[in-house]
Design brief:
Largest sheet: 4 strands, antiparallel
Order of helices and strands: HHEEEEH
Number of helices: 3
Strand content: 15-25%
Shape: elongated
Distance between the termini: 84 Å
Number of strands: 4
Strand order of the largest sheet: 1-2-4-3
Length: 137
């Protein structure tokens, strides 16, 4: 006698089990964030807080009153415009497209760049620190 091999459980059974066994995952919210590519719960920071964070970092780096960077509060964030100060900016276009940035533009000769910071985080801090290091060097 030959026994026919039968699959133990189907995909529907597994999905049904996990749907019942993992209800605690709902406490973490939906799996897809509302903020274009950013994790759930993140979004734009208030403009005043962004301006304060940028000002504090520039002050700590000694570039508070630098003519090479201008800041302007916008509806969705803080637009910064940076000048190279002689040498080319140490940036590539992808630097201005990091999470938390919008409307990043780098001049083809890398003499000027502009970007709107909508969320304070590691990319924004790293960008400003790199620029301050460039100007100090």
């Amino acid at each position: 006698m030959t026994k026919k091999r039968v699959l133990g459980r189907g995909l529907d059974d597994l999905l049904a089990q996990h749907d019942q066994d993992l209800p605690f995952l709902d406490a973490y919210g939906p799996s897809i964030g509302d903020s274009e590519g950013l994790p759930t719960g993140t979004g734009a920071d208030p403009v005043e807080q962004l301006m304060e964070a940028i000002t504090r970092l520039l002050q700590a780096e000694g570039h508070q009153n630098s003519e090479l960077i201008t800041r302007e509060a916008k509806e969705n964030g803080v637009q910064i415009i940076v000048q190279s100060g002689g040498e080319k900016l140490p940036l590539v276009p992808s630097d201005l497209g990091a999470p938390g940035f919008e409307e990043g533009i780098l001049a083809t000769d890398r003499s000027e760049a502009s970007v709107t910071i909508v969320q304070w985080g590691i990319p924004a801090r790293r960008l400003l620190e790199r620029l301050c290091e460039h100007w100090s060097g």
